[in-house]
């Protein structure tokens, strides 16, 4: 039984080396590269990864499914370029393989925003289904991918670290790209947009949820800032959807 780690990447030269070096539990590392123009492919290849160029086309689900189709391992481990596998999680994954127990595993992900020590609200730890037998594994969804496996599910305790943003410029670049992709996918799926419900009221609930219910206030100033930007993210996503309908699909 062996493991293939699948990494989706585009212009990730700042992250790809540390990501690959953190993966000690995989027999094969696949980098599915979306036409990078930097040194991502070269750096990954130098570390022994297999790099396959394949267009993302703003569809992460199909990109991950393509990765599964290229994997030679009996198990697949999905990891993003800005994530790192802790030593404890590497050991746990190896033990799972040794036990040969067919399950799909959730990983405990800890979000890190550069030097800011936010750990609540939008930065709170979460769980992601990322490690499973290749047989029957798939990925579905338009805006947010859903990993699918026919096997029973369990949770590993080792940490998966997620280095979300290195700086505010990167944050806002992703902010703009992700809100556009989300709005377009909603539009293509036939989702409508109510000005009062989705642009006025929904963002207020989004702020309340991350700042109060998910305790973003415990992170002090950065907790308020990130909660505020979560509010603005929600506004922006639905404003873009609203005007997609007004302009017949033109952002």
Widest sheet: strand order? 3-2-1-4-7-6-10-5
User: What is the N-to-C succession of helices and strands?
Assistant: EHEHEHEEHEEEEEHHH
Give the low-pLDDT segments. Answer: none
Percent helix among the residues?
40-55%
User: What profile does the largest beta sheet have?
Assistant: 8 strands, mixed
Q: Could you state the oligomeric state of the chains shown?
A: single chain
How large is the share of residues in beta strands? 15-25%
Shape: globular
Mean pLDDT: 93
Counting DSSP E segments of at least 2 residues, the number of strands comes to 10
Number of helices: 7
Give the arrangement of secondary structure elements:
Elements: E1 3-9, H1 16-22, E2 28-33, H2 40-46, E3 50-53, H3 60-70, E4 75-78, E5 83-85, H4 87-99, E6 104-113, E7 126-133, E8 138-140, E9 146-148, E10 153-165, H5 168-188, H6 195-213, H7 220-246
Parallel strand pairs: 1-2, 1-4, 2-3, 6-10
Antiparallel strand pairs: 4-7, 5-10, 6-7, 8-9
Helix pairs in contact: 5-7, 6-7
Q: Could you please describe the fold and organization of this structure?
A:
The protein has 251 residues and is of the alpha/beta class. The protein is 42% helix and 24% strand. The strands form 2 sheets. Strands 3-2-1-4-7-6-10-5 form an 8-stranded mixed β-sheet, with helices on both faces. Helix 5 packs parallel to helix 7 and helix 6 (195-213) runs antiparallel to helix 7. The longest helix is centred in the last third of the chain and has 27 residues, at 220-246. The protein is globular. The model has no long low-confidence stretch (mean pLDDT 93).
């Amino acid at each position: 039984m062996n493991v293939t780690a699948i990494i989706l990447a585009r212009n990730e030269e700042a992250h790809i080396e540390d990501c690959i070096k953190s993966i000690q539990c995989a027999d094969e590392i696949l980098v599915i590269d979306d036409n990078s123009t930097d040194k991502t492919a070269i750096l990954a290849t130098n570390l022994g990864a297999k790099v396959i160029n394949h267009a993302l086309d703003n569809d992460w689900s199909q990109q991950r499914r393509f990765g599964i189709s290229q994997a030679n391992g009996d198990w697949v481990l999905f990891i993003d370029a800005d994530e790192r596998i802790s030593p404890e999680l590497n050991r746990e994954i190896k033990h799972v393989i040794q036990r040969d127990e067919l399950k799909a595993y959730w990983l405990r992900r800890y979000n890190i925003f550069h030097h800011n020590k936010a750990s609540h609200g939008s930065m709170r730890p979460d769980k992601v289904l990322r490690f499973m037998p290749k047989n029957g594994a798939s990925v579905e969804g338009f805006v947010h991918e859903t990993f699918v496996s026919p096997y029973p599910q369990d949770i590993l305790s080792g940490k998966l670290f997620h280095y979300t943003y290195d700086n505010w410029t990167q944050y806002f670049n992703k902010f703009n790209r992700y809100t556009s992709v989300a709005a377009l996918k909603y539009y293509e799926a036939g989702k409508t947009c109510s000005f009062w419900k989705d642009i006025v009221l929904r963002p207020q609930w989004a702020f309340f949820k991350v700042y109060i219910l998910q305790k973003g206030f415990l992170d002090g100033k950065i907790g308020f800032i990130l909660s505020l930007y979560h509010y603005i993210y929600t506004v922006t996503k639905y404003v873009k959807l609203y005007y997609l309908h007004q302009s017949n699909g033109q952002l």
